[in-house]
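User: I'm putting together notes for a lab meeting next week and I want to include a structural view of one of the chains we've been expressing. I don't have a solved structure, so I'd like a prediction I can at least talk through. The sequence is below, exactly as it appears in our construct file.
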Amino acid sequence: MKTNSTFQLFLVLLLLSSTSLSAQEFVNPISIPPLIQYNTEGGYDLDVIQTEHNFSPMSTTDTLNTMVTTFAFEDFNNPGTTSILGPTISWEYGDSLEVSVLNELSENTTTHWHGAHVPQAADGGPHQLILPNGLWEPPTFEVKDKSATMWYHPHAMGLTYRQVQMGLSGMIYVQDPDNDLILSVIHEILPTDYSVNDFPLIFQTKKFKRNGTGDIEIQADQGYKDDYTYMVNGIVDPFLNAPASMIRLRILNGDGKFSFNFNFTFENGNPFPSHLIATDAGYTTRTFEINKILMAPGERTEFLLDLRGLEGEAIYIKNLVSEIPAGVIGNSSTTDNYATDRNLLKIVIGAPAGPPSPIIAFPINLHPSEAPAMSEVSKTRVKTFRQDMFDVSTKPLFNIDSMLMDMMVVNDVVKLDSTEIWTIKNTTGIAHPWHIHDIHFWVTEILENGVALDKTLYPQIFDGPKDNVLVMPGWELSYIATFDDFGTEIMPNNSYMYHCHILPHEDNGMMGQFVVWNGLGNPNTSTEDPALSDRSMTLYPNPTQGLLYLEGASEEKSILRISDLQGRLLSLLTLPRFDGNVGINVSSLPKGMVILEWLSQEGKAVSKVVIE
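Assistant: Thanks for the context. Below is the predicted structure for the 612-residue chain, given as structure tokens.
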């Protein structure tokens, strides 16, 4: 009997010991990125660097309490101020910005302003590549966005996931303009004191491994399902000191693949009332009390938390994995049961700070919707998420419209000053976040297996302007948008992107591009010159299954355009001087009839080819 009691006591002590060892200890103060304003020329100078970062600096037991190699954006004029992520950049509506980005990495990169309405040449997508030791100085652009939380990150073909995992991301605060009556009033009643009552929060995961010398490094060259670490602003298990006042949280899911189901709770686990005030691209029409919210990679939301009278208490932001729907990457089944309900951030409430908030009760009205009228719609489009086999892969790849991304293919031509309805259909078993560059949109309808969802249950989707939205399996999500600026000729390097914001999907081709067409030329041959004389060419074999030969001669470089029968540019090639024939690989183009135009100063030729 004594032996049994001793054994039971041992089990109890072992259980208590195991519990204490596995309990979370929020000992690391959160890192708030520095806020940078204009330099003396009215712009920003960023430096993309390799550096070192400590993810768990105050923990005595965490192996991550060490220096780990990372990438970071740095304020070129204030070196040494960031060791991961990047500074928060402040934009003012109407200002003209001069931006420069110096790439000090040993690999190519880009810098994309996610959510920003900017000219294509300043967008920072795959076409604006920055070579190692290269300097990107896009054309000066005007800030046309108002009152939004945006972010910036790399967007180079095939490198985006790796570079984000290594640390490259940062916030953009687009400030409330003084000359807008409604927004200036909103500014007066909301918390706006950066790092005092207005906090940027970037939620991510990373997986770490030991290299050949035993040092810890980020596993950034492949995806993962388990054994990863959650972090906020690059810190593991952080705490945030906040005043017992009204505070504002700007939340970004900056992860490469996982969705989070954020849940606000008191220390005892009871729900804490939190009030949604903004989606990706601006304010909602009013505040909405939402205790939990599912956010996909790339999405941003803003919340008000009323901490008045709670001095000395604590609030937690939890990832409520147990309620993440099936098919969403980040739930238990998609992570081999690794992901479980877990607190990600502890908010420690201190003494009140600043003037008292004028908000005395919720809800409060914010900004009227600026969604375009349905009567203005001139065209509808359908984009379909699929999973297909391709010659370049050994397994089915997620894609859009059974096509993989091709830098030389313009997938869609949108007329300048047009308003369109786009419907995104998800035929796969996985939820994909849809992101489109250049514009903001308003979701108008979601059909789930043919049945319309109740809009009132999803204010985070239907009530505010969006540029990033999670499309669940079986959904047909429709949105309205106006393309009212930055028209160009139809050329691949004039394109904006649309893509899945699960970065491994994007890197593997789940992306397309569109041009906002200014009407010059025509959508089939945008630089057609009526003075060009006809010339002859021979194409064989026709039909072809992949390799096509153009027989002829050209004493100078020439252009070969390949378009579909609807006038969409599929490929644009520069051919060298030749006499005889030149081979063209068309295996990546969609099957069916296409139109080939061969253009140079010597003349033009047009012919049809069938791709089998």
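A couple of points you could mention at the meeting. The domain at 374-517 is CATH 2.60.40.420 (Immunoglobulin-like). The mean pLDDT is 91.

User: Perfect, that's what I needed.
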